[in-house]
Structures
1.
Amino acid sequence: MPEKKTKTKTKAKKSSAGKKRLRPSVKIILAVLAVLILVFAGIRIYRWNAQRGDSRVIVLVNPWNTVDNSDFTPSLQTVDGVQVDKSCAGELEKLLADCRAAGVSIKLSAGYRSAEEQLQVFEDEVSRQMQSGYSADTAYAMAEQNVGASGTSEHELGLAVDVEGEAAQGWMQENAWRYGFILRYPEGSEAVTGRSADSAHFRYVGLTAAEQINSLGITLEEYMGMFYTQDAEVEVTN
Ligand SMILES: [Zn+2]
């Protein structure tokens, strides 16, 4: 091993010979640092912006985050035959009116569900799958993915609606974000959301978050920075 006796001397020499100009490697490091600081500040501002005014409705409910833990209590109002939380009622009314004005017929087939109603929907789905020949275990797992067990459905928040019909769903995919709604379970997001793709289910997250989620093409889980929380198994059976 070489000895380090001469270290102090070398250092002194170097500093005396030091120029005011920065070496290219230092410049690169400073540039990288500046970019990192800007990116970090950008993300902070972005997040702050995203939460502004909409924080109450940015609630995550999925197989790993139950309604009980959401701290969200819906205050219900009827829109077009279904109940929804009052936070999204006004935008939902506008959405329905604009969709119809565009010549697309739209009907809501589900809104708020109580825990008991969700349990019923879940049990019906289990029976349906068993009738088509699946074992009880498989049917149960499929129902969890297709409709969600009681306590894990956004319908229990009053912040989600199901839309009937292909034309209306297509219009919603294009335009729902303008009213604060997102397609909650897009194709290919099954492992992140824990739910099967569903072209009928739209979730209210507020105008700002919906616009950002839509333009980034991400899920609510990803939006909330929960990329690595998916410990539960997502079993896709067919
Ligand atoms: Zn739904």
Note: Residues 121 and 167 are 25 Å apart (CA to CA).
2.
Amino acid sequence: MSKEVISASEMERYGYCPLSWWLGRTGVDAEGSEVASGLEKHQEIGASLKTLLHEEHKSRETSSTLLAVVLYIGILVLAALFILWHIGSNEGNIMIIVSLFFMLGASFLLYRLLQSTERVDKLRDDYKLGEGEIEAPDDLTAKSPVLKSDKHNLAGRPDYILHEDGVRIPVEVKTGRRPRAPFFSHVLQAGAYCLLVEEMYGKSPPGGQLRYGLETEPHTVEWEPKLKAIVLEKLEEMNDALAGRSEVHRNHNRPGKCQNCSRRRGCSERLDKPPAGGNT
Ligand code: SF4
């Protein structure tokens, strides 16, 4: 098997057109305004998720500090009462006054916690994220779901993973308008992530999610045997090509596909003919 690891996003390209993937592998860069705007939108989506994760982190920190302060107040009050009842010295009164100051601090922390929880709930609602824990790439949190499978010569990093009750669902966020049904190439990529989750965590996910922007309902891609068979078949084809056992060519007859292809300028098999003398 080839040592050149295939990424899940390469599988998406392969699903669009095998030749587009191959051109990318051989140094033909994707170009066009859609590529730049796609990158920009992806960064915006990353920033939105980062805000949410930062807010959740702050909320957890405030909650732990509040718990510690309440515990401290409890101990202080008990100690003060003990001193007042059994010793009767003035120190008990001082401790009660100190506890009151701590209570003020605790009230402030509680207020901050409520505000932060409200913000988190709103962001989760806006982004339709449910209750699950979000495992995101390491530039967002310490948990980095870089998934790898030596067995399949595959690696990938979904935009994030939803983790709830031991179940992990990989999520890929796409830019552009939400289609009625997800494109084959996107489904293939989601399938690649499902395969990686299955391999890495030893448990099959029920499926993956494809999101077109963060504020629309996600499409669910079921991780069923048929999709797994397709993912494995495509992986085998790609590994064969990388190992020099097969050649890669266009696998469709759709000029519109070539028209929208970001590598059409470097492609000798494109179906949309450039205007005479032109190079677009
Ligand atoms: S221009 Fe057409 S044939 Fe060439 S890589 Fe793109 S989609 Fe494939």
Note: The two ends are 37 Å apart (CA to CA).
